[in-house]
Amino acid sequence: MGYQKTEETGQLFQSSQENFFKFSNFRRRFHIRSLFYFISIFSLGFFVCLYITFGWQKGGRDSITVSQSLPSYSNYFNTTVTPTKTETSEKSEKSEIQNDSKYQDDCSLPVFDPWDETIKPFMVEDTKMKFCNKNFKPFTELVNGTFRVVQEKEGRTCKGRCHTLPDLTAPFKVTNWFSPGPTDCEFLEAVCWEKGQFGEKEVYGWIHTQIVPNKVPKPPIEKSEHPDVFVFVMDSLASGMAKRSLPNTLEFMKTKLQAVDFPYLSQVGTRSQVNAVPLWFGKQVEAGTMKGGKRMEADWTEEEYCNHYLDDKPNMFRDFLDAGYTTNYLDNWIDQTLTHNPICKGFQHFHTNHTFFPLTHILERTVLWVTKQSLKGTQICREVHQATLEYFDQFVRAYPDRPKFTWSWFVHLAHEKLAGPDRADPHFLEFFQNNFEIFDDAFVIFTADHGFRAGSFEFYKTKIGAFEKHNPFLQISVPKKYRDNGILEVMRENANRLQSHYDTRATILDILKYQPSSQFTDHATLKIPDEKGNSLLRQQPLTPRNCEHLPIPQQYCICQSKSTDLTADAKLCERLGRSFLAHINSEIDNFKLGSLCHKFDIQIVLELDLHASSHASKTTYHISVKTQHPAQFETLITEDKETKKLTFDQIERLDRYGSTADCSKPVHFTNLCFCKTR
């Protein structure tokens, strides 16, 4: 039994060995086959990845994503508005365009979350209208050509006087006070007095407006073929600011008017004036250097655009007037855009059929405190931007059957505070809602002249702050009847590329002169004679849209590039900082202001960055210097490595200089001045 068991065990062992070798052979064959499959699949995946990678680099844009999580539209002080389904699909479409672009722009454009955590410390609530009287009702009104008192009170007397401007540069004419009744006055100052212990006292002031239609011949064009064009400029409004401060207005524009955002607009000058000239005249008046080192000369010198009237120069306002449009210019600051900083002549005669200028003159020049307070927003909940919107309403209703062109410029809302426009969101929302039918049948261009310039040094040290400094807001909607012809798709594609004010100008000229003949169906690239930009309603040229090719001085370029922080290099900071201030002092002397303005001495170099350059013989630095008086200036300095010659780009003053430069006005206004006596 024992032997038999051993024999059986041996047979079992032999059988097990045979099975083991069979299994081993099978496993070896299986491993070889598996390895073959694995190598094949891996190779296929590798080549697919290579294809996608090179295809993306060839066709896609190099996009820097800082933060792509965009929460619901809101700001820190207003009610949240939830994004709609339309917006979600629009973002998806935008993303597809970015990743499947046929352009090779060589311009890295960031995607910022406007509510990024780094911006929170600078979002200080604007409380200007927080304690104003929300229940106040005006005592008077001007309706249908009749001035009347609507709140009578015993012992109170109300009268009005008319302010008229015979011509743009003529003296204002002011009538004597008159009692309520019929009047054809467009700008009426109403004041009420009450008897008191020491005589009569002003207790109420209001500026009323009405449009008295001009007797103009029937236009040679039909409104059905030439839509209204309405441009709204909010001074200093950066693209991110608009999203934070005007969430409800932008939500309405996108969902109801299908407006398209252009988040990559770059300014082409420092201030309002030098950005307005490119928009209205198509001319660069601020010289500079383009990326790559090419010099960008000014089309007009200061002598040409400042010391001579501009009426004889081809301009956008004349283009619309000549075409048969009825026009209105609504700039709500007495220092009108073309005539301020420096003090320039601008237009000598009216360049539009109507102008808002008389109201700003009443507001700033009247001697009556009650009138001034009526639009300050601190006592009565009413500011000058609301009066501007009311005047716009009156204008569009006075000319219902005529094609209209308006340019509205809101100066004060965003100019000084990052959250300043917050208080205007309900006003603009109500305005667009009340005029929905008008805007639904018009081109609406909502934009800004430049980015936010009144921030602190700490704000501009953040990535989003540095970007918003030179990134003005732009949003465009088109008439409803043209929205299904492919125009929105073209606009959304262009929205992903770098744009400038010259492209906004080309778009407006395209609307006026070229698109009507095709009923706005022509999307082919068009080179408009003597223009620097390309219409946003058409396919733009395939040539790279970056700051080496577009007319954008490099210091305003929003394409992201690598830089190296050199503030630790004390000797370099000292050399370039002193050279920069010597250049500023030289500019002050050139303006013959040496006796009025302080000479600047360096306190600290706040920033010194080395910028990447395509020219081996030149080095470009960005420098920001704080002086001892104090003031803060920045510029780009280009140094020739062989000759050591320094070239300075346009100088920006970053501190809130207020009246510190006013003494220069009689000679030559410049914000480089810090007055010795104030």
Automatic annotation (TrEMBL):
Q: Does the keyword Disulfide bond belong to this entry?
A: no
Report the InterPro entries cross-referenced here: Alkaline_phosphatase_core_sf (IPR017850), DUF229 (IPR004245)
Highest taxon of the source? Eukaryota
CDD domains linked: ALP_like (cd16021)
Keyword terms, alphabetized: Membrane, Transmembrane, Transmembrane helix
The signal peptide annotation in the UniProt record is none
Per the UniProt record, which residue ranges are transmembrane? Answer: 35-56
What is this protein identified as? Answer: Uncharacterized protein
In its UniProt entry, the species of origin is given as Caenorhabditis briggsae
